[in-house]
Design goal:
By secondary structure, this protein is of the alpha+beta class. The chain has one domain. It has three helices and 14 strands. A hairpin with a 4-residue loop joins strand 8 and strand 9. Helix 1 crosses helix 3. The longest helix has 22 residues. The chain starts with a helix and ends with a helix.
Length: about 250
Amino acid sequence: MMNKKMMFGAALAVAGLGASAHAGTVVIDGLGGPVYMQSTSIPGVFGAGTPTFTNAALNLVHDNLHADGITTDGLVTFILADTDNGLTWMTLVDDITIGSGAANIDSSLGMTSTAPDTGVDFINDVNSDITQSFLPGNGTQVAAGTFNWDDQKYGDAFAWANLMEGDFVSFNFNRYQNTTPGLNADDTFQFVTWNGSSWEVVTTGEFTNNNQFAYSFTVVPLPAPALIGLAGLSGLGILRRRALRKA
């Protein structure tokens, strides 16, 4: 049973999401139950042509999260945003702090992602190891490869933009021997949603025993207030189950 504090938090989430009726919404599967995430506008992110996700744009996104107290260092952070290229799902690998001198590549993370062929990919990867290709005949494209970065100087990122209602997107991540300490070993992945006034972490995830982490999401119509309420309770339920499991 939910305590009063959790119920109050859910009520705030419902009110906040209701105030953002213009924003995009996705429902995520693979995290122990359906989790809804909401977008907000981050203009000026993708001024450069695809597939360039510039360091300046990446800093802008991190700064938006940091302003609301969201830590991105040592984590893989997922957010949904309204950009100049439409509804966009962003994957931020570690923080980005531009250091001096050449990068000393010491961290790696494998990724495979599928999206509709109408999606537009943006990549920030110092070694250019993430590549995108279309799968002929089924309306799908794949982005795959390995993020390699210097966890003291740089971070990487990937985004699918121009997402539309009904689009289905999947992700699978692989942990390598040098994935940590560049990334935290526990709660490596965080899902950050817009609650109507600020960014907040809705749930977290970590690698399985076989060094995998996978999930998928679907772009859905903005839920009615009652459905948003259920989504908020679902997210809180997942967080509560995780807390009980670790207790």
